Amino acid sequence: MTDDDQHAKGSVSYLMEMGALKRAKRSGWWICGVKDPETIAEHSFRTAIIGSVLAMMEGADPAKVALLCTFHDTQETRVGDIPWIGRRYLEAKSNEVVTADQVANAHPAVASGIQAIVHEYENGDSLEVLVAHDADRLECMIQGLEYLEQGYRNAQEWVDSTRAKLKTPSAIELANAAQDMSSADWQRVYLR
């Protein structure tokens, strides 16, 4: 087998591993009593959308923020979604170490590119990184509001704690707006 064949198989292996994110549930919501919480992929998708919107509002690069958001939880195929309470008792490898293992057999350009994205998300201090982190928090807050609507009143603590961590003016502005909306309000604009 040639190096190109091995790199192609390694890259596809990574892509197939990412499919596990479509099946893996966000476990922190179980603590709130949510019986069937969102998957990691569902969370990451909306985080990337929110990140793009926040980036446009903050004058950051929307494509860069979406990229950072897309890869921010990909390590959870290997370590799972460890809720904050669980992190007090566990020592997991850093996201950079897990990512390096995930892409070890991928095409070198793929491996270095993905590792750079994860490293930047975890360690960077650019506006794009700040916005990506706020997007992750805002998505969690909005998801919590949706769970509150569904009757999971224990989600209120998650809404409040993630909202308190928002840093950018745009994320705070959107969080304020979200507080007074229902998940069905988006369609009412078009029904008038």
TrEMBL record:
One Pfam family from the record: HD_3
EC code: 3.1.3.89
Catalytic activity: a 2'-deoxyribonucleoside 5'-phosphate + H2O = a 2'-deoxyribonucleoside + phosphate
InterPro entries reported in the protein's UniProt record: HD/PDEase_dom, HD_domain, YfbR/HDDC2
Cofactor (UniProt): Co(2+); Mn(2+)
Domain HD/PDEase: 36-150
Keywords: Hydrolase, Metal-binding
Residues of the signal peptide: none
First-tier enzyme category under EC: hydrolase
Keyword Hydrolase: yes
Subunit details: Homodimer.
Protein name from the UniProt record: 5'-deoxynucleotidase
Species annotation: Streptomyces albipurpureus
